[in-house]
Amino acid sequence: MPKDNRNFFAKKKDWSEIKDTLLGAYLKPYFQKILTTKHPVFYVDCFSGKGRFDDGKPGSPIIALNVRKECMASTKSENASIDMCFIDLNYALELEKNLRDYGDFRWKPIIVSGKYEEKIIKVLENKRNYNVFLYIDPYGIQALDSELFDRFSMFAFASFEMLINFNSFGFFREACRVLKVDYTKDAALTDLDDLIEYSPIQVDSSQKSVELLNKIADGTYWQDIVNDFNAGKIDGYQAEERLSACYKQQLQKRYTYVLDMPIQIKKTNHPKYRLIHVCNHEDGCLLMAQNMLKRTDELVLNIQREGQMSIFDFMSDVSTDSSGKQTTIYDVKKKMCSYLQNYKGEVHLNKLLAEFYGKYGLIGYINMVNDALKELETDGFIQICRQPQFTGKTRQPSRFMEEKGGRSVIIRRLQS
Ligand SMILES: C[S@@+](CC[C@H](N)C(=O)[O-])C[C@H]1O[C@@H](n2cnc3c(N)ncnc32)[C@H](O)[C@@H]1O
Q1: Which atom of ligand 1 is nearest to the CA of 53?
Q2: What is the pLDDT of residues 217-238, one digit of tens each?
Q3: From the alpha carbon of 52, which atom of ligand 1 is closest?
Q4: How many Cβ atoms sit within 10 Å of the Cβ of residue 282?
Q5: pTM (2 decimals)?
Q6: For 5-304, which CATH class?
Q7: Multiple choice CATH, 312-413, 1.10.10, 1.10.3470, 3.30.9, 3.40.630
C-alpha cells in the first residue's frame, strides 16, 4: 500500500538526511567556484517540499538558502548573484511561510506553485548565460521525464548541472507491474523499507503505461531487463544495477559527465536508491566525485558500522563503498591502465579523473587514483607533465597532482 505522502514531512528520515547532506556539502564549494566565472547563478529546487520538516529539521530549500548566505558573505567576486527558485505542487504556501526570513527583497527566493514538468521550461526561459543547477528530488519516478532532460541540454546556459534522486528499485517494480511479471518473491524488490511507498504512480499493463516508462527511461531497454529477470537470468539486485547503468548511459548521450552514488541505509550490502549527478564540465564532476566519496565514507562509518572504526579506515590504499565492497590501489591501477588505452596522445588530469569516475563509478579515493597514476609513471607506462615544472624556492621537481590556481597536470601515454 502506498504511504500517505502527507506523513513525509512529519519527521526527517535517515535517507532524506543523506540526500540533503550530500546536497549541502556540494553546494558550498560549487557556489564558491562558480561565482568566480562572473556569470550569475540560478538554483532551482524542483520538488522543494515545505522548506522545513515538522520536527524542525531543515529541508532542502533552507539548506540551500543557508549555503547561499554563507557564500555571498564571503565571495570576493564583484556583482556576484545567486538567484533561487523553489517549485512544489502541494506546499507552496507552507514554503512561503517557512522561507519568510530568508533573503532581503533583492534576494527573495522565487516560489512557484505547480508541477515541475509544467513549470520548469518557463522558469528557465530567460536564463541564458546563467550557471544553472537543478535539484530533482521527487517522491517517485513519474515526473522524471527524459524529454525535459533533452530540452535542458539545448538551452544556452553558461553551465548546467543536475542532481537527481533516481528511485531505481521503484522504477523496476513498476516495470514488472507493466509487463505483468511477479516480483513479490524477490528480496531486492520487496525489502525496501518505506522508501518506494511514497511513489503512487498509476501503471497497468496498457500501452500507455509502457510509453510512460519508455519516456522516463528514455528507451525500451528496461523491457529486456524485466524479461531477463522473469526468465531467472538475473535477480532483483542485478536488474537494478543493469537498469541504473542503462539509465546513466542514456544521460551520457546528452551530458559529458554522469556520476551515481548508490545509497544504502542499513548493513544489507545493497543500495536502496541512487543519486545521479550530471554536468558538462570536468571540474563540476570532480567536485561532486570528491563529495560523494566523502559522504560514502561517512555513510559506511555512521550507519553501517554504527560508529565503529574498521582497520580499513586507516589505510589510504583501500576504499570501501556503501555496499561494503572494497577497492584496492591495484584494482584502480588495472582499470586506469585499461582506460588509458583510449588515449593516443595526452590528457589533462581533471578530465581523465572525471571520465574515469564516469566509466567505472566511484571506485577509489582521488588520492588512490593519483597514486595509481604515479605508479604507472614509475612502470614507464605514462609520463606526468606538470606546469610549473619546479617548485618556487627550492627548484625541486614539482610533485603535485592537482589542477588549480594556474597549475596543470598532463598525462602522456608512453607505451602502446
Ligand atoms: C521528496 S519530497 C521533497 C523533499 C525536499 N527535497 C526536502 O529535502 O525537503 C517531494 C516533493 O515534491 C512535491 N511534488 C510532488 N509532485 C510534484 C510535481 N509534479 N512537481 C513539483 N512538486 C511535486 C511534493 O509535494 C513534495 O513536497
Answers
A1: 9
A2: 999 999 999 999 999 999 998 9
A3: 9
A4: 22
A5: 0.90
A6: alpha beta
A7: 1.10.10
